[in-house]
Amino acid sequence: MATLKGLDLNLLLVFEALYDTRSVSRAGVRLGLSQSATSHALARLRETCRDELFLRTPTGMTPTPVANRIFPEIHQALEALRHSVEEARGFDPAASTRRFEVAIPHPWGPVLAMRIRDAALAEAPRVTMRFDTRTLADDAPTLMREGLLDLAVDWIRAEDDRFVNKRLFDDSLVIAARGGHPRAFKGMGWRHLAAEEFVRCHRRAPERRPKALQGRLWEMMADSRLTVSEYLEVPFVVLRTDYLGVLPRSMARVAEQEYGMIITDVPGPPIRIPIWLVWHEGRRRDAGHAWLRALVAREMQAAAARAGLGGGAEAALPVAAQ
């Protein structure tokens, strides 16, 4: 069995920084070390692990299979140590150097992520925020259990036991056409829509699809000749063609005011889509995580209010209790 006796645990910080930055110089800057000291630490790591760990290539330092295999466990262990020390001291946003990972795949996610980042910077200038706009992927619950992903903002709830789903607000869907479209107008009915071509987004498998994303509108769009990957691509197509597109209402105000699009409601009852803040119950007593949850909820709800969307701020309960 391997032993940690005699291992300088600071070397693990160097390993983590090298893996993240893929650069000896950038890793040194992150850790406040000279390039020479960082290179010396890498040499000691190689000797300890009996592996090169990182190979020099034209694009930077490339991890070896051994480095890829050991990084997740080392990163998780270091994060646990950081959190333990933070908790022992109490969480002080102004002084904290914690790193938070947030998945925010809402169609307006990149814009909302920058809003959250700016708000965090004002309160916690040394905290690092990293964002991923993937829709709640199959591996997200595992990543949240292991502490590699702090929380997600998504229109898909986590159904696994011990997860918390807090409704932030209700988004809904509208139909968009370019200004000057020869047939589009506010108040279009099903008969008018049936005569038009649509650009649509790829549909998820039924088990990964919000229940609201089905029904007559989706059946009408089934034979669309143009399918894109993300909702952010829809306005780009709509502005340059006579295609109609479906957008979240949170994007409608920008589409209408800044790009002159024609926005009309989907006929019939509104198609409402709750937006959820998702996190693992095991983080409930983590003061830093509580700060993050409050900040994300506040900024998301403020953005929703500006877009004229209904708030949802219901009590956060584990899925088993809801």
TrEMBL record:
InterPro entries: LysR-type_TF (IPR050389), LysR_HTH_N (IPR000847), LysR_subst-bd (IPR005119), WH-like_DNA-bd_sf (IPR036388), WH_DNA-bd_sf (IPR036390). Coiled coil: none annotated. Residues 7-64 form the HTH lysR-type domain. It comes from the Bacteria. Keywords: DNA-binding, Transcription, Transcription regulation. Pfam families: HTH_1, LysR_substrate. The keyword Protease does not apply. Belongs to the LysR transcriptional regulatory family. This is Transcriptional regulator LeuO. The lineage of its organism: Bacteria, Pseudomonadati, Pseudomonadota, Alphaproteobacteria, Acetobacterales.
